[in-house]
Amino acid sequence: MATGAAVGAAGGVAGGAALASALGTSLPDGASAGLGGSAASAGGAAGGTAGGAGAGGVPGSASLVGSGGLGAAVAATPAAGRQPGVDTPPGAHAVYRAFALRAGTDATRLRGWLALLGDDIERLMSGRPVLGDVEPELGEAPASLTITLALGREAVRRAGVSAPAWLAPLPSYKIDALEERWGEADVLLQLTCDDPLTLAHADRVLQRESAPFATLAWVQEGFRYARGARADGTTMRNLFGQVDGTSNPAPGSEEFDAIVYRSGDGPFGAGSTSLVLRRIAMDLDTWDEVDRSAREDAVGRTLKDGGPITGGAEADEVDLAAEQGGWPVVADFAHVRRARPAAAGEKIYRRGFNYNNPGASGSERAGLLFVSFQADPVKQFHPIQARLAELDMLNEWTTPVGSCVFWVPPASSRSAADGGFPGDVLFA
């Protein structure tokens, strides 16, 4: 959807004005053509997918997001009231695009922007072209595309709402070497997909749509196993070769819901969650000098399958009391011991991605986009990170260079056609 472009038809402009009126907002200069496409689509003027295929029949479409091969019959839609991209299977590729709001983006303009994004997100995830898209063929096979919108503290303030105390930068940890360019931002779009071409197209559409309202803060790209390269449900590995994300609650379980999603009334209540993104640089050159047994001791798990070094399979509990020759098998500095919850409630859901830039050096060369979801980052994430910062052998080879916290609003109770969009609870 090209905002302000000549491709916006006259009917689209009229439809945009109608939708803007329904939302109780006005459009930014040049955006009426794009929003008109949203209104026209909502009325069915552009309801079909590119190429004339029904959305449900396209491999990897929103109704058929695969947890295995593309097009597998696994529902993409999360539980009612929740955005995709949290409890839905992660795609093989990810883009995290963060924005800084323009000075003139007040509550009215912010609402208009979020409405535009909401309509585009619905259409892109289902394989339907956004109005004004001159490359609709690039998005006709969604390939398990999910798009999640998250807001920072300033965006909430611009909407005229007081942000909760936890929606703020994390405390400083002694291991941090944070770079401002990877820091807090106002709005975040998380895009994951099994096809990098589809992903690039969706990212470009949303970037173009956002230009009148915000400037680019940063972009972080990542990847994990290609869909079908491993058995469904296989835990990803990071660039150190470690199985990464073993102790995770299962999406759809009561434990998952209790850990990840907030409860209660109001905009920051039921259906919403928090997103922590930490960019962690990994020193692969010095890691190459470490032998296999030392690598396993640093983590407390085997490299072969992620099982505890005390014995057992990946899903088995680590025996932290096990000893050998009077010494603990799992050292005090082992990652699994430091990450173990010290109190009830200290659990998170990890959903990370690797990054690798072969032509770069230093912190840009390789690392991990550590992404976690939890109801309250202060109560759940911070205690774990504080223990890891104090004594974790992996700190010898890893350095956090970026850190930010966002609020993931609940999904709207209304479709985009009816004026709903992620974050509309702020304007109720």
Give an account of the 3D structure:
The chain is an alpha+beta fold and 428 residues long. It has a domain at 13-168 and 179-227 and 423-427. The protein is built from ten helices and eleven strands. The protein has helices spanning 10-23, 32-42, 107-125, 153-158, 196-210, 254-260, 284-287, 292-299, 335-339, 377-390, and strands at 93-101, 146-151, 187-193, 214-223, 273-282, 323-324, 327-328, 349-350, 353-356, 366-374, 398-408. The strands form three sheets. Strands 5, 8, 9, 10 and 11 form a five-stranded antiparallel β-sheet that branches. A four-stranded antiparallel β-sheet has the order 2-3-1-4. A two-stranded antiparallel ribbon has the order 6-7.
Write out key terms for the chains shown:
alpha+beta, 11 strands, 24% helix, 4-stranded antiparallel sheet, 428 residues
What's the layout of helices and strands?
Elements: H1 10-23, H2 32-42, E1 93-101, H3 107-125, E2 146-151, H4 153-158, E3 187-193, H5 196-210, E4 214-223, H6 254-260, E5 273-282, H7 284-287, H8 292-299, E6 323-324, E7 327-328, H9 335-339, E8 349-350, E9 353-356, E10 366-374, H10 377-390, E11 398-408
Antiparallel strand pairs: 1-3, 1-4, 2-3, 5-10, 5-11, 6-7, 8-10, 9-10
